[in-house]
Task: structure prediction
Amino acid sequence: MTPSSPSPLIDYAVDFNTDNLAGQAYVGALHAANELPGNTKFVPCDVTHWEDQIRLFEQAAEFGSSGKIYYVIANAGMTRSDDVFTFNGPDKAPQKPDLSILDINMYGVLYSTKLALHYFMSQNGVTPSPAQEDTCLILISSGAGFLDVPRSPQYCNTKSRVNVIARWYVRTSILPKETFDHVQSSGVELSLQRWKTLGNAPYGF
Result:
């Protein structure tokens, strides 16, 4: 058995940006687990701001040894109580709804899509050629994209019309077995698709 070695001491004198604890902690965990050591960088980005996404893509291209971007995953998204259908009362003026779900899940994704295609086409040109390098843009859908979710019009709208790998509930390791058992016990039939694991990410096929 290989003897263990102590972890390096943490320098607590170094300034740490508490606004980005989750992102920095995730990068640290990847490095500690020897997953993509030295090839991971956290860049704060508000996806609703075009300028933030411009900066994100620029730093991503500069960070890689090739100066190129091959994969883009538009993973930022959120949901919460949706007040589009909220009735404010017969004696009250209607209140402007909070549309931040659309700002993040739709407009932010469209910004990412625009930038991804810009980099992909700049790298590969616009004419198909055997010399072109593989690139991939992945958009994240949800069961809410093809199921009715009462009083969540914004979220459902942002997750619809996306071609997905698994188009129904599929048992994977993304949720505990008990969660899928609960869904099935409520009358939802689970897909009979098999599933594999690509790295640590499950996908149906």
